[in-house]
Fold this protein.
Amino acid sequence: ELTVLGKAQEFFQICDLEGKGFVTRQDMQRLHPELPLSLEELEKVFVTLDADGNGSLTPTEFITGFSQFLLEQIALKNDVVQPSEGETACLVRYEETMSGDEDEEFQFSNLMDRLGATKVLDDETDVKQLWLQLRKEEPHLLSNFEEFLVRIFSQLQEADNEKNELECALKKKIAAYDQEIQHLYEEMEQQIKKEKEQFLLKDTERFQSHSQELECKLLSKEQELEQLVQKQKRLEHQCTQLLSGKEETKVENTKLKLTNQELLRDLERTSHELSLAQQQLQVLQEEASRLHEEKEMEVYRVTETLQREKSGLLKQLDFLR
């Protein structure tokens, strides 16, 4: 079953050469050279494995279903070639007459030599164990297993030959590529050398021209420097004069600073007095407002009293009349 599972995985890789991760109906046709099945039979196998009917098989669907298909085919073949009781008895008697392990080792070695397994396999232990197990427990499957090994090692040998051919072709391409690279490298070196010589020639001419320009600039800078020295001397003279006048200005500034401080103190005192005066004025205004209100109330009371008296006098006058 492990061998069949491995073969199913190999068949999936054959179908999915592009590495899509799934297998279509057209991909399934690639197994025609690998299996004794017609294209129509492969189509039927694909339809059987495509249980969900989406037209593609995932790795799990393909490997699981195809492994089961291979096991069923092997079981059917075993039923067809099942040996008779007499053949089985002869086989048992023949095995009993063999020399045991030494003969098994010889037969297995002879089988591996015929298959050319030493060129393909580094370790034959797993194959040997499976071969011995089938020989002891399922001898009727041994011929099928050996046929399977023949096909497998034949394919592996073909793959190894193809790999060797590809390696040879790759080595030739690499050699040609290296030769072409070497040729390009030599041409590039010649081109670089030529351009370097031209650059050095141009650079020398440019250096001479640049040197003359620098000499002219240097002469101009020296003249500017002389002018700056003269200007500095004039500025130093002016600075000396300014320093002498600066002392007088400093004394005057000191006096002005003292005067300014006195004025600031007077301003602060005046501001304080003005603030007190504003507060007093506000108090007086509030007092005047209060007196005015009291006066208005008093006038209102007097007026109302006079009005009442006037009304009483009018009534008395009417009474007297």
In short: Residues 11 and 34 are 9 Å apart (CA to CA). The mean pLDDT is 78.
